[in-house]
């Protein structure tokens, strides 16, 4: 990092609060003396950096001080543009209007001579987000409720039918182009994950009476049964494309692998669906319950295909 970039980075850090010379030196991997010279240079530029002495001392900026708009580097602008482009590929997204204004601001923060170069580089990179035709009219409402910790009464459509549930939205995320809402269900007494496009209606409701606050969802935990699945070399390549599982794969010298994790039994149905798609390239070693569920699902599939 050159000195100009380091001076800018120091200012950004000081905007977040007081930092000691030692903290800054470790952050930038330079000497305390270098940091002191950088602070002197900032002061010479007219920036009001205050230095407090003592054990709890450090450098800080006045509470009302704000930096003027900073020009982006080419790579910084490219990262922002790629992020905005990937978000726009989602079928639905919150703050659509703000995306357009942010994209325009990114252009203004880039030096004029770099804008053409940015267009050229952006054409050689892309982030592929699957396009889904589903509508999510309650996306922003759920996001606001999750942020403000507000309960909702929701009508939800699942493979088992339609149900009304009193939910406390906790967080929203995307996966494979779909939006998901992690929420605590008062009726189910646990935290579950809901597909946002399957909500039929969502309206505010009063918080229900609860003895204990809802706990976050746990898919894996040492208290859950251990799952061990042997994979052929081809099975390893298939599993590497499965989100949440690839990082738990233990490779063997012959190219085969072993999937080991402590999985919540309620998630066995999801894992069975993954294993059915892998055919004979995956073999469940334990637990017996998962192996039995896989056998039953395979027989049901054979019977269905025989009809």
UniProtKB/TrEMBL annotation:
PROSITE patterns: WYL
Positions of the WYL domain: 138-203
Record-linked Pfam families: HTH_11, WCX, WYL
SUPFAM superfamilies with a match to the protein in the record: Winged helix' DNA-binding domain
Domain Helix-turn-helix type: 6-59
Domain WCX: 226-301
Gene3D superfamilies: Winged helix-like DNA-binding domain superfamily/Winged helix DNA-binding domain (1.10.10.10)
PANTHER family membership: PROTEIN PAFB, PTHR34580
Protein name: DeoR family transcriptional regulator
Organism: Dictyobacter halimunensis
Lineage, highest ranks first: Bacteria, Bacillati, Chloroflexota, Ktedonobacteria, Ktedonobacterales
């Amino acid at each position: 990092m050159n000195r100009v970039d380091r001076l800018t980075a120091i200012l950004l850090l000081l905007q977040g609060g007081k930092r000691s010379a030692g903290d800054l030196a470790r952050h930038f991997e330079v000497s305390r003396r270098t940091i002191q010279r950088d602070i002197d240079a900032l002061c010479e530029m007219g920036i009001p950096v205050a230095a407090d002495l003592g054990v709890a001392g450090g450098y800080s900026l006045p509470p009302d001080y704000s930096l003027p708009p900073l020009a982006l580097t080419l790579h910084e602008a490219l990262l922002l543009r790629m992020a905005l482009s990937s978000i726009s590929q989602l079928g639905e997204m919150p703050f659509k209007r703000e995306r357009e204004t942010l994209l325009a601001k990114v252009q203004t923060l880039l030096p004029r001579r770099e804008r053409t170069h940015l267009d050229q580089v952006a054409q050689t990179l892309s982030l592929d987000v699957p396009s889904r035709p589903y509508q999510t009219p309650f996306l922003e409402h759920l996001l606001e409720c999750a942020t403000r910790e507000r309960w909702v009464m929701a009508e939800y459509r699942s493979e088992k039918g339609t149900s009304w549930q009193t939910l406390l939205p906790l967080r929203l995320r995307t996966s494979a182009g779909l939006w998901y809402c992690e929420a605590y269900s008062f009726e189910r007494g646990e935290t579950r994950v809901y597909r946002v496009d399957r909500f039929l209606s969502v309206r505010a409701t009063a918080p229900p009476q609860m003895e204990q606050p809802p706990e976050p969802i746990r898919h894996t935990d040492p208290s859950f049964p251990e799952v061990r699945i042997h994979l052929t070399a081809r099975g390893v390549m298939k599993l590497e494309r499965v989100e949440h599982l690839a990082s738990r794969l233990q490779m063997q010298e012959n190219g085969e692998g072993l999937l080991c994790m402590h999985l919540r039994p309620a998630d066995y149905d999801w894992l069975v669906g993954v294993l059915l798609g892998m055919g004979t390239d995956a073999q469940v070693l334990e637990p017996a319950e998962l192996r039995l569920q896989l056998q039953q699902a395979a027989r049901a599939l054979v019977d269905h295909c025989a009809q």
